[in-house]
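Hi R.,

Here are the chain sequences for the assembly we discussed:
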Amino acid sequence: MGKLRIRRKAVSSIIGGVIVLGLLLTALTAMVVVSQQFDTYQGTSNKMSQKDIDRSSENVKAMYPGLQGGFPATGCGSVCNQYNMSLANIGGIAVQISRIYINSTQQTSGCTIQPIPSHSNPGPCVFSPAPAIASFSFNTYDSYISPGELNHIIRLWLPATISLPNATRIPSNSIWIVTNRGRIFSFSWPFPPTGEGLPGAGVPPTIYTGTMKVAYGPSTGPGGALNSTTDSCHTEPRLTLPFGGGKTLHFVNPWITAAILSATSTSPQTSTSVYPCTQCLFVYAYASNSLSTSITFSWGSMVILTADSSENSKAYFIGGPYVGIVYNQSGVRSFATYGTPVTINPGSDFYLIFEIQYVNVGKGTFSGSGDSFSGTATMNNGYLAQAEDATFRELEIFLNGLYVRPTC
Amino acid sequence: MKIRKLKRNLAISTIVANMMMILITLSLAAILVAWAGTSFGAFSGGSQLFFAQRGQALQERFVIEVVFFNIGSSNTMTIFVRNVGVIDIKLAAIYVNGNPPTSNNGTLPYALGVQQVVRFNMGIPAWTTGTVFTVVVASARGNQAVATARGP
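And here is the predicted structure of the full complex:
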């Protein structure tokens, strides 16, 4: 009887244990399966997150001149027009360009013939990568841009019958660059000037050399501001002005200098007066022709100068075209009269001296002069300051066909 | 003899009762295990489907590269859509300002391979300068690419 009792207990325990074990195994199997699926999903999620991080790390920027060319492509004869696009990869990851669109919002001319059939309306110029020269394409090998690579050239090919809209097109041409990770970068060509008081039309082909910010001390009258020994924004050393008869030269950023000169300034080389206006503001830029061909520096580029006074209510904006004079390193002017282009040979370095002579005033009050200067008024420090503290806020220089590099 | 018979009968009843209890228990256990297996199986199967679909949707990436207003016609718009994900996608619908385009040169749904690009030339309400259009492209897996463009 006792054995039977014992056996009964054993049977129940075994049955109960088997049931529980079966339930546990079933649940465990399901949990393992679900865990594996979630792991797979999590792995996919991590992989795509990494791709998103890679995508957000891309950063492509257009460099001057942005786009140039329209010349027959090598190996293509008269069949293709080739354009070179200058890009810089300033992101932290290599970039592959998948497609380029030009004039992607609207255009009235240009790529009316599209590589896609049955579409007769004017459309954007669509460029896809191709291993060899082909219409509506760009070189596949050019599409890879390493991180930190500057001035990367991408060769674009169009049929000879199609030319891209003129560089002076107003409004600017829109260029969209699409990467294989899906980022879209765009820029306008030619690079639009920024700020107020810009010429409304006819902006010439330009180069953007960067922004200069400089502040000067209190003005004591015409010619006084730049002679001040205080400079609240910059600590660059002063040097003796090479062409200014002992005037002080301000290095306001590594490659642009500014000074006010008097009419009596003479060239140390020619001993003649080289500055035709009285106490004009001159802006010096050190430029180098790093291209393989000569560059003709055309008259008609632009300087935009923003300035204001110490009184906010009299904030001035001054901008307008400039008259450019090109000097070589010896201080000899390369052309005698305004408006005459000068050719700079490859490898030559020049000082570009811009004389801001023609001034337009966007806003502000000038005692004795009304709200604006006349188109031919000379902008000198006296006009600008009117016995007030004058602060140059921003100077932007647009050069035609030149690559300006820092000298230090 | 009578007592011995009675005892034997009692013993048989006890055994039968025990066996019946064991059978009932085992049957219930089998039903329970089967139910649990079915339930957990359905759970794991559902989760597998869920994670598989979510994983595929997660791998989709597509962008509207550019929106182009056709100057030749004030009521047409062209968009370029690129698959920048890691799996093929199927574009299911396009909406312009919340409405389907009045016409479309592309047939939807449209299968788009990895790194492929497709161009849709669509009929839209007449645009004027400054008119804002929001274009939404939706995939069959429920993802969307949105682009906003302003009439030039």
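Helices of chain B lie at 2-58. The longest helix of chain B spans residues 2-58.

Let me know if anything looks off.

Best,
T.
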